[in-house]
Amino acid sequence: MNPLEAQQNARFAALDPQLPPIAPPPSASEPLVVTAGGRKAGGLLTRVVHAPGSWPALWGPLEMWDLTAVPGDSGPAGLAALLDAWRERMRGTPSGADSGCSLAWPSRDAEASAVLLAHGFAPLTCLAVRSPEPPENAGPARVSVRRAEESDLEALTELRLAEWRYTSLVGTAVARPGARALLRAEVTRSLRFSGLIWLAEDDGVPAGLASCALVSPAPGDSLHGRLHPGRWGYVDTLSVAPEARGGGVGRALMAVAHRELVRPGVRGTFLFYHPANPLSPVFWHRQGYRPLWTMWIRRPAWS
């Protein structure tokens, strides 16, 4: 571990005890090194391109530049210097409208938030965590929740599609051709392999779904360096039919999901939500979740 990484880990540990040690970015990354106030700050820049019609293309720009920032003990000044160097590095780089720059940073670092806002970034997604606590109120009696089956595929697909369309207005989802087929295939995989999908019915009518999984962060995956090592419950998707929102369907689904996910040895549960969504932040905070990481984005990318 180099000195910058050690300084960064010490700062993160003081900022939020739920933050794990930082993880190395992909080996193909391009280094950025700057100084601010006589202190060194570093970063690694990675470019990712998604094919049109692919699953990742439903959830963001086709071309994404991501910075792993390691300002060490240089603080907000070091982060600002890194962002300035990133902007200079991108100057003259051809980037179309379907592109973006992204950076993940601890949610509790308000000073860093001010720097990112000043550089034109917006908080798009939060990774939120919840300690393993007893489930909340199960919701109204008329709402029943059961494990979903393959015969529910079409109802689940419609609920998943409704959630994706709403997210395209307030979050990361991007309207793309072929979205329904991709979402249907994802629901099919979840039914067959994770089995942790629950369907809520309001007087027998499909009203919502919760798609979940049990995961463990590992080197090389997107959770490494975001969560402490161990077993975690993941709430991938909660979707409530538009006509059923506000009626307790989400509470009923999460009472069952939390009961099933919080098993012996599970450290807690986590999920991603969008701060601009007028519905989900309030709901998830009442469910006991709190932001750990914020994913910031600038669209389109600097050029």
TrEMBL record:
Alphabetical UniProt keywords: Acyltransferase, Transferase
UniProt KW Transferase keyword: yes
Residue ranges constituting the N-acetyltransferase domain according to the UniProt record: 143-303
Entry-linked InterPro entries: Acyl_CoA_acyltransferase, Bact_Acetyltransf, GNAT_dom
Signal peptide: none
Pfam families hit by this protein: Acetyltransf_1 (PF00583)
UniProt-recorded name of the protein: GNAT family N-acetyltransferase
Originating species: Amycolatopsis nalaikhensis
